[in-house]
Write a sequence for this structure.
């Protein structure tokens, strides 16, 4: 994409709880594109999602707008834009997962404060771009007096003046859409995975798409339909029966035929990997020749290394909404494929800004 101008780099410093300097990479937006009104857009990525934000900005032909993040000795913090956002459409990228530096709650709090700050600074519109949305799994009461945390998070995001939320492959689409009163855009990683898989599946006689549980059947069926259109042939669907109560997983039988098939297991996220591993083992026990899996978000906690180490699973794909920093690097090198979602988010941002169609973007 054609750009002209220059970007001024600013490093804003602070002090961490341990007394070590904390630096924030910022870049003042001075670029102009012929097909996009950059005078009316500001694109921010908070430090915890800086790498992903840079990738999105590069796809757009932009630089990240300048911001400062400061830490105080008492544990408090502040984040502010270092460029004017008056009358602009401000997009803020922040993926909500815990890492070694910040908990998911730290990241959520920082995102909320910054969104509110942009609204107070007279941004015309404020859009939260949240590649991985935390607490999306707690979307209903499963025990007496349970919280419905998805709805509470939605209320917090709306309370600071957010106009729109963009995310990727939430756990329960209906619950996500019903939790928010502001506009929401739900992106899907299906096309990203299909683009990687199609060359491997073209010559296969039998390909079966599998959902690792009943709750994911609709998601798996959407993927099956998209993959079938790409391969130009019908594909069967199978699913695992599974229940979970008080953290205890009970796995039942596999419904569907997978014998002599290349199986593609599709899910929204991987936590410990137990559900996916049970499904992979069941498929191999029933005669599957090869088992591949794809999940939009690789959270990878607990015994997730066991999933990659298992001989029943031949290949695993995730997007880069959550970096696989908890996994054994040797296992990552051998079996994990990370596909970038930056281009998808960049295209969504541009279409939102220009009034384009996201339905067309997600069509496969």
């Amino acid at each position: 994409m054609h750009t002209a101008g220059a970007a001024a780099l600013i490093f804003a410093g602070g002090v961490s709880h341990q007394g070590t300097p904390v630096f924030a990479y910022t870049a003042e937006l001075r670029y102009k594109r012929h097909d996009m009104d950059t005078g009316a857009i500001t694109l921010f990525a908070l430090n915890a999602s800086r790498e992903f934000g840079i990738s999105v900005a590069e796809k757009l032909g932009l630089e990240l707008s300048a911001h400062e993040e400061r830490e105080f000795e008492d544990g408090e913090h502040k984040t502010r834009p270092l460029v004017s956002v008056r009358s602009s459409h401000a997009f803020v990228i922040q993926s909500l997962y815990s890492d070694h530096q910040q908990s998911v709650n730290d990241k959520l709090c920082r995102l909320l404060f910054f969104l509110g700050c942009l609204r107070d600074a007279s941004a015309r519109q404020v859009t939260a771009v949240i590649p991985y949305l935390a607490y999306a799994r707690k979307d209903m009461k499963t025990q007496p007096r349970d919280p419905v945390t998805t709805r509470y998070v939605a209320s917090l995001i709306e309370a600071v003046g957010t106009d729109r939320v963009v995310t990727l492959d939430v756990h329960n689409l209906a619950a996500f859409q019903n939790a928010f009163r502001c506009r929401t855009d739900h992106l899907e990683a299906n096309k990203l995975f299909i683009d990687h898989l199609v060359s491997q599946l073209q010559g296969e006689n039998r390909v079966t798409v599998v959902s690792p549980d009943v709750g994911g059947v609709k998601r798996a069926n959407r993927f099956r339909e998209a993959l079938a259109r790409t391969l130009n042939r019908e594909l069967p669907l199978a699913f695992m029966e599974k229940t979970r109560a008080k953290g205890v997983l009970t796995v039942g039988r596999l419904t569907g035929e997978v014998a002599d098939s290349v199986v593609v297991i599709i899910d929204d996220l991987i936590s410990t990997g137990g559900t996916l591993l049970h499904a992979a083992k069941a498929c191999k026990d029933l005669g599957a020749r090869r088992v591949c899996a794809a999940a939009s978000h690789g959270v990878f906690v607990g015994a997730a290394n066991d999933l990659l180490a298992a001989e029943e699973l031949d290949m695993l794909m995730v997007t880069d909404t959550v970096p696989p920093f908890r996994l054994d690097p040797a296992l990552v090198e051998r079996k994990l494929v990370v596909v970038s979602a930056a281009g998808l988010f960049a295209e969504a941002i541009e279409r939102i800004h220009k009034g384009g169609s996201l339905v067309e973007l997600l069509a496969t």
In short: Residues 104-120 form the longest helix (17 residues). Confidence is low (pLDDT under 50) at residues 1-38. The chain has two domains: 8-188+342-362, 190-339.
